[in-house]
Amino acid sequence: MKKQPRIEVPGSVLEAFLNAIAMLSFFAMLLFLFFQYGALPDQVPGHYNGAGKVDRWGGKEELFLLPLIGIVLWIGMTVLEKYPHTYNYLNLTEENAEVQYKNGRRMINVLKNEILILFSFITIQNIRVASGTAEGLGVFFLPIYLLIVFGSVLFFMVRMLRN
User: Transmembrane stretches, by residue range (predicted)?
Assistant: First the structure.
């Protein structure tokens, strides 16, 4: 395996902004969860099918699972962001390394924040469904979310190939 150059790539203002938006949505969701928890029934949505309908119910303590997984992923990807020289690149050279590292770092940043916002949204929807104010995620949830995530990955891969 070819050793890739190590270049310090500082975070950008855009990355800090995306982190702030994701964290605000996460903490807002946690506040909503804690304020609603006592009023929720014992059974809450545990899983949705591809059409956004609940296909498994579980105990309300399961509501803490997605936020826990989300924050662990967010922290792990934040650490990963700091080491763009460990990612796989196509046609990496000394001349384009800094540009490629910035692009790779930004992709990880965007994806980690999309995931945290997704998990926050699903947790809020779980609370709404359990309390009877919503029926599910909706039929368009899965296609829209997949379009966002895969669209982001495709965008950054095209940028990688152009750089």
Answer: 12-35, 63-80, 115-131, 137-158
